[in-house]
Design goal:
alpha+beta, Gyrase A, domain 2, 4-stranded antiparallel beta sheet, 4 strands, globular
Length: 91
């Protein structure tokens, strides 16, 4: 999965998501909505096969790309805890 910057302003960024996987993209979007610094987040998917999704994020302060990084880190922690629980349960 990769990102292409379509628009960038001080408090807003719009990204095209290349080679996306909903397994990660949807939770990332939902985690952005949980961030109190994020004023607005929207995931546009015109057609699931024919077009790449667009992720738009606007923050109250700071950089929108930092909000995306924070959300990705929180998700990483969630997945790491899940992996640890699975390893403990299955050993």
């Amino acid at each position: 999965m990769g990102f292409e910057v379509l628009e960038r302003e001080r408090y807003r960024i719009k990204l095209r998501v290349k080679n996306y996987d909903n397994t990660y993209l949807r939770p990332l979007y939902e985690e952005l909505l949980n961030d109190e610094m994020v004023e607005f987040a929207k995931l546009y998917i015109d057609h699931p096969v024919l077009s790449d999704p667009i992720l738009e994020v606007r923050v109250r302060e700071g950089k929108p790309q930092n909000a995306i990084k924070r959300a990705a880190r929180r998700l990483s922690n969630v997945f790491q805890k899940l992996l640890n629980q699975l390893e403990t349960s299955l050993s």
